[in-house]
Amino acid sequence: MNQEEATLIDENVDVMAEQVEAAVRATPGVTGLYAAGTAVARAIGAGARGLGVRRDDAPLVVVRRSAGETRVDIAVEVGLAYGAAATTRAVHLAVRDLLTAQGVADAHITVAVVHVTEPAPA
């Protein structure tokens, strides 16, 4: 793979991550989005943003493509009234439908609930 092809793949992954993030945020029950990935990956991302190598508004979801495989990692905050199970299923379906429409039908999608919000007491 030459440099031009590598750059194109990187740009496509960035665009895909932005689209996935928009689909996740639009899913009923999702009340927030967190940086996905391992603690090490999140630390590296924070360092890259601090150095100006990565945009502050870079997507919080992680999309990785290699050897014909696409992996998507998502970390969400869920509203208690919607339920974690129903919301993660809805997020998974929304992302799967988006990727399938883009010709990526076999992506491995991981959705983690990292926080559940309750309504403020009355």
List keywords for this structure.
single chain, 122 residues, 4-stranded mixed β-sheet, 44% helix, disordered N terminus
Describe this structure in words.
This protein has 122 residues and is α+β, with helices and mostly antiparallel strands. 44% of the residues lie in helices and 25% in strands. It contains three helices and four strands. It has helices at residues 3-25, 39-51, 84-101, and strands at 30-34, 62-66, 69-79, 108-117. Strands 1, 2, 3 and 4 form a four-stranded mixed beta sheet that branches. Helix 1 crosses helix 3 (84-101). The longest helix is centred in the N-terminal third of the chain and has 23 residues, at 3-25. It is elongated and about 50 Å long. The relative contact order is 0.20.
Q: How far is the N terminus from the C terminus?
A: 59 Å
What integer is the average pLDDT? 80
Please trace the helix and strand order, writing H or E for each element. HEHEEHE
Unreliable segments (pLDDT under 50, ≥5 consecutive)? 1-9, 39-46
Largest sheet: 4 strands, mixed
> How many strands appear in the DSSP assignment?
4
Shape: elongated
Please count the helical segments: 3
Strand content: 25-35%
Question: What is the radius of gyration?
Answer: 15 Å
Helix content: 40-55%
Estimated structural class: alpha+beta
